[in-house]
Design a protein that fits this description.
The complex is a heterodimer of chains A (320) and B (236). Helix content of chain A is 69%, strand content 1%. By secondary structure, chain A is mainly alpha-helical. Chain A has one domain: ABC transporter involved in vitamin B12 uptake, BtuC. Chain A contains 13 helices and 2 strands; from the N terminus they run αααααβααααβαααα. Chain B has 2 domains: 156 residues, P-loop containing nucleotide triphosphate hydrolases (Rossmann fold, 3-Layer(aba) Sandwich); 62 residues, no CATH class. Classes of the chains: A mainly alpha (320), B alpha/beta (236). Chains A and B meet through helix 6, helix 7, helix 8 and helix 9 of A and helix 2, helix 3, helix 4 and helix 5 of B.
């Protein structure tokens, strides 16, 4: 196992842990079945991208179309990603969380996820459509060579700091009287209302906090893989995160972390072994995937473990 | 269809008032409308002389108008003690910012409220169950949890929806005793109940509903003398 592979795995684990902690706050603790979580991660990724990239009129970036391009230094893109996730949660929450019953909320959020992806895919002048954004600058890449092992360790460290901050926020919420109120609302919303709790305010708050955390996870991921496209955030990605939270133990932060490690790492490692068995003789997919990230050509479909898995399964079923 | 139609009643302060009637009379709907958990299409609700018709349910609860439910409504995955603590008002840790500031900020409030909750548990003989999950309690214990939880809010008026239904006779006697004690302490109670002998023992005055309308009021003894009410509900 080389350094790049190990650090790659650690960064993905960190991103998944952050996303699972956000989902655990919303779904596990508060009972909001947010089938659109990946949209908030995507909002964070796109925001971080356009904040850190130069304008699309710049010579190296003229092959893609996007709004903004502010060339801002780290950590502004990451903070901007978190803010974008929170900001997006406000209109979505106001539409979905106020009047709808919880099962309808889940359906509305799923539909939101599909609509958002379709809109971004087709509105090419907004965020470069289906091709997505490429050559997203990495944090502090002018200070440390991003191709070096040192940079890989540095990025793992940055991700670890983000995980620690998010963990602290999530733990303080869950283990507080506020977290207790959220769990009460999850168990019986009407009874909580009859005890003086305002369920709309509670849901909106946790939706915005979860949106911010998911946005941060997207900003980290976009800064790491240096590319971001609609194929990265199709709705099944949210289902993977739900699986992780449920496998780890709903409502428990440690469980969310365990689930994030088990499900994505399981996908990563098991599919790697499957690939070795099934695709013997072909070029190692892992090598190809890593190099596609390294060169940042925008070929981001194979960047996430499960996306790569789906692609390879599809490839395996196609006529040769 | 109107579940409650033209019902107008006044609940005297510091008394237990009963609301009785056949199934489907609209008693629970009326209670829900008063508590704000169901909207009224028209009419006016006043609490302590103040118009609360437009207030949402959580605001009515914060003003001291607290209801319980016909079906058990415990927070099943919280412990019995936590069920009580959820209801406690004015907790510094019960907001996002308070939570983020950590235990040092809200720990004192928590200790005070845990002491208060334990004294309520002791009063209702539930101290031994404080660490058990509320979802694992018996039907009668869930009823007690609901009443204890409501009391943590320091209500001025308690709306009880069939507090004795599905409860073991021994626990019924306990609940009856607690309600009488609460009345002696000055709490106002409006109670929907089907067990007429309990209503007779507990309630100072009683209202009768049938098919969404109010058909009579008075003490149980006076109601038994009104033929149309006996025919509608009190037969047997």
């Amino acid at each position: 196992m080389n350094t790049y592979y190990a650090t790659n795995l650690l960064v993905y684990a960190g991103v998944d842990i952050i996303a699972c902690l956000a989902l655990n706050l919303q779904f596990g603790v508060s009972g909001i079945t947010n089938f659109a979580l990946i949209v908030f991660q995507a909002a964070g990724a796109y925001a971080a991208a356009v904040l850190s990239m130069p304008p699309s009129s710049s010579p190296d970036y003229s092959f893609q179309l996007y709004v903004g391009g502010y060339n801002l230094p780290f950590p502004i893109p990451w903070l901007g990603g978190a803010l974008a996730g929170a900001a997006l949660a406000i209109p979505v929450g106001l539409v979905v969380l106020r009047k709808l019953r919880s099962d309808y909320q889940a359906i509305a959020l799923l539909v939101t996820s599909i609509i958002a992806n379709t809109v971004i895919t087709n509105a090419r002048t907004f965020l470069n459509g289906a091709a997505g954004l490429a050559l997203i600058p990495q944090p502090l890449d002018t200070q440390i060579d991003p191709r070096s092992d040192t940079y890989s360790y540095f990025f793992v460290g940055l991700t670890a700091v983000a995980v620690a901050v998010v963990w602290m926020i999530a733990a303080r919420i869950v283990n507080s009287p506020y977290g207790r109120t959220l769990r009460a609302m999850r168990d019986h919303e009407l009874a909580a209302t009859a005890l003086g709790k305002n369920p709309v305010q509670l849901k909106m708050t946790v939706f915005i906090v979860g949106g911010a955390i998911a946005g941060l996870s997207g900003a980290i991921l976009a800064g790491y893989i240096t590319a971001w496209a609609p194929s990265e955030w199709l709705y099944p990605e949210t289902i993977i995160l739900f699986a992780a939270v449920i496998v780890g133990g709903r409502g428990n932060n440690l469980g969310a972390i365990l689930g994030a490690l088990l499900v994505p790492v399981g996908f990563e490692e098991v599919t790697r072994l499957l690939a070795a068995a099934r695709l013997r003789g072909r070029t190692g997919w892992l090598t190809g995937r890593c190099s596609s990230q390294r060169t940042s050509t925008g070929a981001s479909r194979a960047c996430r473990p499960w996306t790569a898995f789906r692609s390879r399964c599809h490839e395996g079923r196609s006529p040769a | 269809m109107q579940a409650v139609d033209g019902v107008s009643l006044e609940v005297p302060r510091g008394q237990i008032t009963g609301l009785i009637g056949p199934n489907g009379a609209g008693k629970s709907t009326f209670l829900a409308v008063v508590a704000g958990t169901m909207p009224a299409s028209s009419g006016r609700i006043a609490f302590d002389g103040e118009d609360i018709t437009r207030l949402p349910a959580y605001r009515r609860a914060r003003r001291g108008l607290v209801r319980t439910f016909q079906l058990p409504s415990e927070f099943g995955r919280l412990t019995v003690l936590e069920n009580l603590l959820v209801a406690a008002p004015r907790h510094r840790g019960d907001s996002l910012w308070g939570a983020l500031r950590g235990r040092r900020y809200w720990g004192e409030d928590e200790e005070r409220l845990v002491t208060e909750a334990r004294s309520v548990l002791q009063r209702f003989g539930m101290s031994a169950k404080e660490s058990d999950y509320a979802g694992e309690m018996s039907g009668g214990q869930k009823r007690l949890i609901e009443i204890m939880r409501a009391l943590m809010l320091h209500p001025r008026c308690l709306l009880l929806d069939e507090p004795m239904s599905g409860v073991h006779p021994r626990v019924v006697a306990e609940i009856q005793h607690y309600l009488q004690t609460l009345r002696a302490e000055g709490l106002t109670i409006l109670m929907v109940e089907h067990e007429l002998h309990l209503v007779e023992q507990l309630c100072d005055s009683v209202f009768v509903m049938a098919q969404g309308k109010l058909i009579g009021s008075g003490t149980m003894a006076s109601l038994r003398r009104q033929r149309e009410i006996v025919d509608a509900y009190l037969v047997g």
